[in-house]
Amino acid sequence: MIKKIRLMLEYNTYCVWIYDENDEIIDNDNPPEWDDDQQLTDAFMAVSDLYDTFFIDNKHEFRYIGCPDDETRRKLLSLISAAVEIITKKNNGKYIIQNDIHCDF
Question: DSSP 3-state assignment of 62?
Fold first, then answer.
């Protein structure tokens, strides 16, 4: 059975989640063979960093405030698309890629 990569947006985490053949989480990072892939890391970090701005997180408050405007939404969608394209091209059938990035922000 093949391993799976899930792409998910979670506050303050990297978007790439690796699962084993039993659908148990292995890591929240790039797969080992792409560990040094700066292009892939930069692409998903850009997604994570922008998504994290949709939250207030300080010593007094933590909450989701959402996307501030259409321009930011378009930028995030473009970053997601570019990152998914990069990981899809690199994958070459090695992993099942499950895109669970919901664009309802």
Answer: strand
